[in-house]
Structure formats: structure tokens, C-alpha cells
Specification:
2 helices; six-stranded mixed sheet; 6 strands; alpha+beta; 122 residues
Length: 122
């Protein structure tokens, strides 16, 4: 995906699967902890449904819609971690495996900020 896109511009946009079938609306965007690059989107898959995490790479943002190169069924079957919380490294790994993607390189140091809120000191 284009890395120069403001992640806020994705929120509220329609998302479509590889066949062009609408899968839902982008609810939230998750950034990579190390780089700040948009990495995952939570897509609301229906009025009474849940959010499904989709990878933003290799997805494309074209003509104000997110095109996800996976089948709708695979997307709907993605692990459900809820939204509004930080994805742990283990959860991200589960998502990478689910989509059959290469997992990101392992961090050399543990994520010491995991679970902390921005602006709070110890």
C-alpha cells in the first residue's frame, strides 16, 4: 500500500475483496509500533457483525476505496481481537499466518512500551 497516505483518510472508506465484492467499511487503522506506517485496518463487515483485521500491505487504496487482495471468506474468518486496543506481537503473528503473509522481522529488543498509555510515566 502507499505509505504516504494519512491513515485517518482511510477511516470510513469502503473496502472490497479481490473479486470486487464489498466487505465493509474501514473502522480503524493500526500503525506499526516501530515505523509508524499503517499496517492493519479493522473493517466493519456488517451492521450486526464484527470488525475483521485486514493487512494494508498488499492492499491498495484506489479511488477512495480500499481493495484487499483476499477472498471475502478468508477476511471474515480472520482472528477476532476486538478493536480499540493495541495489537500484541503474538496477535499480529496470528494475522500474518492467517493471510499467508511473511511475518515481519522479529524485534531485537522486547517491546517495553507494550500496555503503556501515551503520556503516562511509570
Amino acid at each position: 500500500m502507499q505509505t504516504d497516505i494519512d491513515p485517518r483518510s482511510l477511516i470510513g472508506r469502503k473496502a472490497f475483496d479481490r473479486e470486487g465484492t464489498k466487505i465493509g467499511t474501514v473502522d480503524e487503522v493500526y500503525l506499526d509500533d516501530a515505523t509508524g506506517v499503517p499496517e492493519w485496518a479493522a473493517v466493519r463487515t456488517g451492521l450486526f457483525s464484527r470488525d475483521a483485521f485486514v493487512p494494508l500491505e498488499p492492499s491498495e487504496f484506489v479511488k477512495d476505496v480500499l481493495r484487499v487482495p483476499f477472498d471475502r471468506t478468508l477476511i471474515r474468518d480472520a482472528p477476532d481481537f476486538g478493536v480499540g486496543r493495541h495489537l500484541s506481537p503474538e496477535q499480529e503473528l496470528q494475522l500474518y499466518r492467517h493471510y499467508g503473509l511473511d511475518s515481519p522481522p522479529e524485534e531485537t529488543a522486547p517491546d517495553r512500551d507494550f500496555g503503556k498509555l501515551a503520556g503516562q510515566d511509570e
